[in-house]
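Lesson 9: reading folded outputs for more than one chain in a single document. The general rule is that every protein is listed as its sequence immediately followed by its structure tokens, and records are never interleaved. Here is the first one.
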Amino acid sequence: MCPAFSAQTPSPKNLLFDLDGTLTDPYEGISRSVISALAAFGIPEPDRAALSAFIGPPLIDSFMEFYGFSRADAERAVKIYRAYFSDKGLFENEVYPGIPEALEALKRAGKKLYVATAKPEVFAGRILDRFGLSPFFEGLTGATLDGSRSRKDEVIRCALDAFSLSPADSVMIGDRKHDILGAKAHGLFSVGVLYGYGSRAELEAAGADRLAENPADLVNILR
């Protein structure tokens, strides 16, 4: 386990942020995209709130886990999902209050900020541009559309390699267990955010090193 920050040890300078549930709230666009995919299979979903479970994990895994799809059907569902998402869903989204201010404060503190998301990189870049977040970040890594890179540990590994980042000098920030477990897989300190879609219990069980109640709390932890 990575050591906790203390007054005697310098805090890591490289901050890797998850996107969905950490920087932006994507519920509207993701839930509508899932509904579009389910409709193609004749599956109604009366409990739309339940679709928040799709925020974070790889889509194929979610369709298989929550609806019992075969791998082939899950792949087809993802294609239908992306047809809606790429046209409308990615912008049915909003930046969490306090995030721009938090990113600005961390930049002023000398931190280097990156995005490491399991969302396809091409979509993540468009979202960051649309909501004015791109200037805060040194770089972005995400999933690939062909599925060759989809898990969070794979995305984090790609970020470390692409930007020549030392795990000992880097932190992963995210709202789901996948962010925390991905960080642990590569020896990064991890901070779980409680304003997203993962519960305190989920983040603690995954072994988050610290928990942040809100963006301002996140700044205090990381600065």
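And here is the second record, again sequence then tokens.
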Amino acid sequence: MSLGMFSIFPIPHVWNKNAANLIIPFLPIVGAIIGLFWWGLSLAAVNLSLVFSSVIIMLIPFFLSGFIHIDGYMDTSDALFSRRSMEEKRKILKDSNVGAFAVIMLAVLFFLSYAAVTEILMRKVNLLMLLFIPIVSRSMVGLIMLRLRTFSQNGYAAAFKNNSKSVYSAVLLIYLAIVIITAFALLGVKSFFTISLMVLVSLLTAFYLYRQFGGISGDLCGCTLVITELCGLISLSFTGAV
């Protein structure tokens, strides 16, 4: 169910509403699969020219997730930059039309992602960190969904939280701890800086959006995930987890 919802990988159509609350603790597993493909495909892409390599590598995680999180990022951008009241922001968030702010912020996202990946390739940074970035982002978003109140009871975030258990948060923290230890062992102390920055940015983004909208939703979590992964790439381009 998690793979079918948050990736493009073909799986049998299975949906059991009684097990929907398990989607959140399995998010890091989806992230691990996406990260594995991101890392492997990126190793193949580096044999191309710098421009094509950068474009392909930056787009891989978006394609593998079916662009579902970018949808939330764009919807959030439209609502947030409208600078309207909280209720109007919520209405804009649910509007399926694409506004100017969504297009502008998508361009900003792509430009920054392209610049970060280009720096990573030029500095010959170890691409193994690409395996861990999607796991960290999804572990954090899972925790945010579990711990913060949703402003609507009709969205995906609220549906996934129904009948959730406190142990799910512990599971997500264990995933995060495993990633930190493994990345540190393989890539050194610089990987710890990248992961720490991702965790910090994820929390700051989530709390800011929570205050702006009076709660969280699936779109806001998707926006948080996209920004968290972007900061992971930018951090990697500067620190170089070699």
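What the second record shows: Residues 189-213 form the longest helix (25 residues).
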